[in-house]
Design a protein that fits this description.
By secondary structure, this protein is of the alpha/beta class. The protein is built from five helices and four strands. A four-stranded parallel β-sheet has the order 1-2-3-4. It starts with a helix and ends in a 5-residue tail after the last helix.
Length: about 130
């Protein structure tokens, strides 16, 4: 990673879980944080040393400002909100038949079969009156 970054003109990190900020200090860096659920993402936010921090909602932005922002004055000016979503002018639902024609899958050959409960399961034991 260090060799690749040595000659890079920018660095983008998705979810901010690359926890070694010293490796990208020399280049413009953008980090995105999609959520605050995972400890690695939270730790990445506290180690944030990039030029821009992208969040997916005002809620996420406020969360990071109220936590990480307490330790990093000026964080708000380095944050940008880019909401999740689709551009419906570019993307549209595709009828399944069109997708299947492209990938070459015959659904008739891949139908899911109902499985019987394994022997010894609660359902099987109840049927045998073991727990009555």
């Amino acid at each position: 990673m260090g060799e690749a970054l040595a000659s890079a003109d920018r660095f983008y990190m998705h979810d901010g879980e690359f926890l070694f900020p010293y490796t990208y200090r020399h280049i413009p860096t953008v980090i995105s944080l999609r959520d605050s659920v995972y400890p690695e993402t939270q730790l990445g936010a506290f180690l944030f040393q990039g030029d821009r921090l992208i969040t997916i909602s005002e809620h996420s932005r406020n969360y990071y400002l109220e936590t990480v922002g307490c330790f990093f004055p000026g964080l708000a000016e380095r944050m940008t909100v880019i909401r999740n979503g689709l551009d419906w002018d570019l993307f549209r639902p595709t009828p399944p038949r069109e997708v299947l024609d492209i990938v070459g899958v015959d659904p008739a050959k891949h139908r899911r079969r109902a499985a019987s409960p394994p022997a010894g399961t609660l359902k099987g034991a109840a049927a045998n009156n073991r727990y009555r």
